[in-house]
Amino acid sequence: MTAGTRDFDSGPTMISALSRRVVVAPPWKWSMGPATPAGLLVAFAGAVVVRTAIAGPAGARSVAGSLTFATVLALVAVGCRARPEVSVRILATGVGVAALLALPALLHLGIRASLPVGDFPAWAVLTTFVAGAEEAFLRGALFDAVHRRSGADAAVVVAAVAFAALHVPLYGWHAVPLDLAVGLVLGATRLVAGTWTAPAIAHIGADLAGWWVL
Predict the structure, then answer these.
(1) Close Cβ partners of 171 (under 8 Å, ≥ 6 residues apart)
(2) Measuring CA to CA, which residue among 133, 150, 100, 120 is closest to residue 200?
(3) What is the CA radius of gyration of the chain?
(4) pTM for the whole thing?
(5) How far apart are CA 138 and CA 72, in angstroms?
(6) C-alpha dihedral, 153 to 157 to 159 to 160, nearest 10°
(7) What residue spans of the chain are helical by DSSP H?
(8) How far apart are CA 155 and CA 138, in angstroms?
């Protein structure tokens, strides 16, 4: 009986000892790892296709298409931990680049209310969200992924090409040279500032200025 009791009692003891050797990682430690440039570009292409399908003939004027597109990019950027950074230097850099981007159109066309002024507030909110999401993805998540693999120059170029490509379904191929140039400027801004927040400010500022000069 004594031996039998010992054998019976040893079961839980052995299980307890083994269980102490098993290390279970807490839930927040599980991760898919850094996103790859290829994976991000596939997600980006999918977002562009969805936007185009939803927008239809309305193109860039489609609120539903723009919101869906921006939401997808924002979610991917958040998943890649593309966090914003704000400082006086970053703000000044973004505003300065926005002025640089808007200046040629301003000098050529001058300030004018080319669209109904009463529609500006709602449009400005939408534009801020869409442009901010684009920069969080392009000059944030995608830039970082390419930079890890291939360096800063490749990151600037890949993000600029993606920026130009996303506008093709909206404005046509004739807009590619200008959008590519703007993308390179925004990429350079990302390098100088060290964060995607500066090109986001520049992008948003230039788009908002476009209401009054285009």
Answers:
(1) 59, 60, 179
(2) 133
(3) 25
(4) 0.81
(5) 13
(6) 140
(7) 2-21, 37-55, 63-79, 88-109, 120-135, 143-150, 152-171, 176-193, 197-213
(8) 9
Q: Which of 155, 140, 158 is nearest to 197 (CA)?
A: 140
SS3 content of the chain, % helix, strand, coil (to 5): 85, 0, 15
Q: Six-digit token pair at 94?
A: 């973004």
The candidate with the shortest Cα–Cα distance to 183, out of 150, 145, 137, is 137
> How many Cβ atoms from other residues are within 10 Å of residue 78's Cβ?
15
Q: What is the distance between the alpha carbons of residues 144 and 148, in angstroms, rounded to a whole number?
A: 6
Average pLDDT over residues 84-100: 96
Interacting residues of 168 by C-beta distance below 8 A, sequence separation 6+: 175, 176
Span between the terminal Cα atoms of the chain, in Å? 96
Tokens read off for 122: 């709602």
14, pLDDT greater than 60 = no
Candidates 70, 43, 38, 77; CA nearest to 197 is 77
